[in-house]
Design goal:
Largest sheet: 9 strands, mixed
Distance between the termini: 31 Å
Bound molecules: S-adenosylmethionine, iron/sulfur cluster
Length: about 375
Amino acid sequence: MSDAGPRGLYVHIPFCSGKCAYCDFTSFPGRAGDIPRYLAALEAEAALRGPLPAVETLYIGGGTPSELGAAQIAELFARLPQGRYAEVTFEANPESLDRDRLAALRRAGVTRLSLGFQSLDDTVLRRAGRRHSAEAARTAFRLARAGGDWSLSLDLICGLPGQDFSRDLAAALALAPDHLSVYGLDLHEGTPLARSGFVPDEDRGREMLELAIDRIAAAGLEHYEISNFAKPGHESRHNLNYWGAGEYVGLGCAAASHLDGERSRNTADLGEYLRQVESGVRPLAESERLSGKAKLGERALLGLRRLAGLRLDPVLEGEFRAEWLDLERRGLVTRHGGRARLTREGLFLANEAFSSFVAPFEVNS
Ligand SMILES: C[S@@+](CC[C@H](N)C(=O)[O-])C[C@H]1O[C@@H](n2cnc3c(N)ncnc32)[C@H](O)[C@@H]1O
Ligand code: SF4
């Protein structure tokens, strides 16, 4: 038995108004001129794949999907596979979310808006290379709240240079979002932030994340995944399926798919993506078929991300007998009632715990 939910469709929109100093996502500032071609390519890519399996959730992520204008948003939804989606998420940035776009999103049937705030401090935002102010973020949130009966989610990063995270968190919670994602800063090699010599303070980072967990819970949002908190009923169904190792179809540059036992990823080169799709070729960069212990391990490490944990079965317990015992001994995981969960300590050392489930499966001691 698995924890997977209904299948999802992910669509990647790789356009941005600029490049943030910490960002390693596939995104291309200054390429807005390619948007019309890209929207046509998304439709063509879906056709190239042949009949798609039934999907129940749709997630438009980026990059910055709100770089599309209102008419382009309408065109995007018209070109995507039509379905009766139970949840439609759209990621938006404060610098581009306006009334016209919100109206287009409402007409398109969007049910969740995920707003990238990262911080609510102008100095921190500027140093991180963001192109909006804290006030613009608040305005975007208020417009979004007034603009539709949707679930509103905010993203914050914890550990940005010069950040008082406690203040950022209080400012974000004051807006009463339905869902909050808090990501510890990942310093990616080659990004301007990494090259600047900035060194994250790991002890402080952990202290801040501990504080976040307690303060967000006190605000009535349940901690349901390592980085995610939601009011009851506002969890991301799309992502719950992902953490349940469920199937999803990805469309667009760099989009990943998991279907019929195969994990694949499209090329992250925008020009190549467009050229291949336009010449009738599927824009695949890689694909692999996990099997045996590797496949089980993937289910374990994805499932442990959820606070509700992972449903255990005899195969999963038996194949990783030594690993489960080792993780329990180290205080990172507990097993109870047929489920395995990360402990509070395990939440902060999750990557260490997850490494037990990745080949060559060496038990740490
Ligand atoms: C797909 S990204 C981009 C969303 C949107 N374009 C934005 O910038 O607000 C989704 C989220 O990942 C997080 N993120 C991106 N880069 C990160 C990094 N280096 N470390 C931690 N979190 C990061 C941010 O919170 C961001 O909102
Ligand atoms: S963080 Fe978001 S807005 Fe900034 S470059 Fe990355 S995808 Fe674009």
